[in-house]
Design brief:
258 residues; mainly alpha
Length: 258
């Protein structure tokens, strides 16, 4: 699961999240922000590293962006993508969920349905055999109110140094979990754009000629059919079968058929 899983509720995807935090760190000074990017670039984890050097209260602002927004849909809406994913989990007990999100929205919905789950966000976490799902926050976990708690903030893979450390340590639990599941389990990628080069590197390392993984992407209106064909072929080089949908609501409909 990626940031796109929460779009129904009005939450931001990764780029929108970083843009919002960047503007806050510069007090709305978009020109200063643009000038800074000229020198350091706009890679996925570069702006958070800048926040740290500025003394910006990143974690408190991150909590605000993750949880304190005007929702487009209520969490009880059965037509939201995340809600349909919870129904999928309910009908497939024992499932593993790898999430790149810091939030606890999935846990919240599972709890509302009285479903037992385990959340893993560091190498001291544990899982219960009777849990309907084990949720692996491979980039860390930041619950509401957790901005001042070291056990949560230290789990976050949020800036350049965190990211470099993680992917230079192939035996870390975060990387090992992804490699294992990508290679040996059938994975459904939901709410993920696959723009992260390190994820593609892991998929390349985990290629298995005996199985495939699947990814949902939205077919943008007005795009040429050749674009969709080319992208499907490109994703297939990572053993990913691309499932195109015209609307995000179709993801839940497809999950219900599995």
């Amino acid at each position: 699961m990626g940031a796109g899983i929460n779009k129904d509720y009005g939450a931001k995807d990764w780029q929108e999240l970083i843009s919002a935090l960047s503007e806050k760190s510069y007090d709305g000074g978009k020109s200063s922000l643009s000038q800074t990017k000229h020198y350091v670039g706009d890679d996925l984890f570069t702006p958070p590293a800048l926040f740290k050097t500025q003394g910006f209260n990143t974690y408190q602002s991150l909590v605000h962006e993750l949880y304190e927004f005007e929702t487009a849909k209520e969490f009880s809406d059965p037509n939201s993508t995340l809600y349909r994913c919870v129904e999928f989990i309910q009908h497939h007990p024992g499932i593993n969920v790898i999430t790149y999100n810091y939030d606890t929205n999935l846990e919240y919905l599972l709890k509302k349905k009285s479903l037992l789950y385990c959340s893993t966000y560091d190498d001291s976490s544990f899982s219960a055999e009777e849990a309907v799902a084990t949720i692996y926050h491979v980039h860390g976990l930041l619950p509401y109110g957790g901005a001042e708690q070291k056990r949560f903030t230290s789990s976050l893979i949020f800036n350049e140094s965190d990211y470099y450390y993680l992917y230079n340590n192939p035996y870390s639990w975060n990387v090992a979990k992804q490699l294992h599941d990508f290679k040996f389990n059938t994975c459904l990628f939901i709410g993920i754009s696959l723009k992260d080069p390190d994820m593609k590197r892991l998929l390349e390392l985990a290629r298995n000629p005996l199985k495939f993984n699947f990814i949902f992407l939205k077919r943008e209106k007005g795009y040429r059919e050749k674009v969709f064909a080319d992208i499907s072929s490109y994703f297939f080089t990572f053993d990913l079968i691309l499932i195109w949908v015209d609307e995000y609501s179709q993801i839940g409909e497809i999950l219900a058929c599995i």
